[in-house]
Amino acid sequence: MIEFSPRDLQQLQEKGISKEKVLDQIETFKEGIPFVRLEKAAIVSDGITKLTKAREKKLVSKFEELNRLLSLVKFVPASGAASRMFKSLFNFLEHYDPGSESVDAYIERLNDTDLKTFFKQISKFPFYEIVQKRIKNKAGSGNDIKNLFVSEMLREDCLNYGFYPKGLLPFHNYGKFTATPFEEHLKEASAYAAVNNKAKLHFTISEQHHSFFNEEFKTAGPRVSKATKTEFEVTYSNQKASTDTIAVTLDNEPFKKDDGSMLFRPGGHGALIENLNEQNADIIFIKNIDNVVVPKHEAELATSKKVLAGLLLEVQQKAFAYADQLDRNDITGEQLHEIKTFLENDLNVRFLDSFSSFSISEQLEILKDKINRPIRICGMVKNEGEPGGGPFWIRDAHDHISLQIVESAQIDSSDEGQMTILKNSTHFNPVDIVCGVRNFRGEKYNLLNFVDTKQGFITLKTQDGKELKALELPGLWNGAMAFWNTIFVEVPLLTFNPVKTVNDLLKPTHQLT
């Protein structure tokens, strides 16, 4: 039995974490987290809907007809620092010795194709002119210009791009100015998330970056407002300290730091379900901060979002009517069958084979439980390379089958059958989600009631040279939404345009010319 000292209890109180929650997490470490069991890949006509152009047009019309009566918000996870984006450049700064070889020789010796591409197309990067102006007077000192360029970008006493949040880096060069992902999200919101020329956006950011985002909004906000004739309401939140998770020793005891305090670690992006739960809107659009496009693709992107939102409204209307009917207990046998069919065909709900053996009252309770859930419409794009995490039918420990977004780390790589299902998947998840979080009475669901807490991750880490086990909470669009009603829709590939490495900015979807 774990005993907490008065100091431990004080630490828990300061972080807003209950003793029971920590004990539950320690129990999770002891039990381990089982791999997700894939039943089959979700494909078009079996878990993924492919809409015709005519159907898309109708859904866009539905959304445009109703959106003036609704509250909309765009929710953007934006806390990630840009350091990973510049990994190859940081390696270069650390290991390159200008006194012993040229940059070209260094690249050739290591066969560093990423670095070679970076320097070959360096003038195409949106920050090229910014850096060039800063090093103009330094270049004459005999410094290698390529080394100088990277140093100016990344060193702490220079531009320090690696420290900044990814959302505030120059992504697109418009000539007179460069636009950050933050600015592009404002512009995008004006195209599909505005009501009466007002758009609300919520960014989850790191506390240390608050002032940076505020300054960017002062600059970019008026510019986008003028161009789009849209007024913006921007709010922020941070990942809560109360969502941090306890770290344990390899013997599942709380890991103590040198000062005797317990070690807690951030719970991962799954912790943001608490931030999402605080958003009160009829429709919530979710999209990652680094997934933006240049103007030539904006119209197609906006149409795709309106299609997903229109589908949400359409299916929600039916679900609300049936939920109201169930609530009044005014159901014939024929109507019960109709509601079950709707859940199966429209909301991808699967029932146990034993459902028909239950009494009518038991069946009604099951239908009420299944239909009164938040709804997510998730865009899915075709795999264009190696298959990874994405849409699958899974079977849980109670034999319930459901449609889920699964990461490859949740799958047992030693199980040949599971890996075959993974390799046969045709689509992946671009984090393009439209959420309906109210019930048929207009009341907001408590989203924390629909989390599968057993879909987190346990990883091995080190602290001060000592090994420990860390717990990552169920991902925001994985286990944190496991008990939502889910619809997957095929969307255009251009809706997935992330910048994971700096060279991704060279892709045509990030180039204005």
Task: Please name the defining characteristics of this protein.
513 residues, alpha/beta, Spore Coat Polysaccharide Biosynthesis Protein SpsA, Chain A, three-stranded antiparallel sheet, globular
Please characterize this protein's 3D structure.
The mean pLDDT is 93. The longest helix has 30 residues, at 298-327. β18 (457-463) and β19 form a beta hairpin. This protein has 513 residues and is an alpha/beta fold. The protein contains 15 helices and 20 strands. Strands 2, 3, 4, 7, 8, 9, 12, 13, 16, 17 and 20 form an 11-stranded mixed beta sheet that branches. 35% of the residues lie in helices and 18% in strands. It has 2 domains: 15-80 and 165-314 and 426-510, Spore Coat Polysaccharide Biosynthesis Protein SpsA, Chain A; 91-154, no CATH class.
Could you outline the blueprint of secondary structure elements for this entry?
Layout: H1 6-15, H2 19-31, E1 38-41, E2 43-44, E3 47-49, H3 53-66, E4 72-77, H4 87-95, H5 103-110, H6 113-120, H7 128-135, H8 145-154, E5 172-173, E6 178-179, H9 181-192, E7 194-195, E8 198-204, H10 210-228, E9 231-237, E10 245-246, E11 264-265, H11 273-277, E12 283-287, H12 298-327, H13 333-346, H14 360-371, E13 375-382, E14 390-395, E15 401-406, H15 416-423, E16 427-428, E17 432-436, E18 457-463, E19 466-472, E20 485-490
Parallel strand pairs: 2-3, 3-20, 4-8, 4-12, 8-9, 13-20
Antiparallel strand pairs: 1-14, 5-6, 7-8, 10-11, 12-17, 13-16, 13-17, 14-15, 18-19
Helix pairs in contact: 3-12, 7-8, 9-10, 12-13, 12-14, 13-14
Overall mean pLDDT stands at: 93
| The CATH superfamily title of the largest domain | Spore Coat Polysaccharide Biosynthesis Protein SpsA, Chain A
How does the helix and strand content classify structurally? alpha/beta
The CATH class label of the largest domain is Alpha Beta
Please count the beta strands (DSSP E, at least 2 residues each).
20
CATH architectural grouping of the largest domain: Alpha-Beta Complex
How is the CATH topology of the largest domain named?
Spore Coat Polysaccharide Biosynthesis Protein SpsA, Chain A
What does the largest sheet look like?
11 strands, mixed
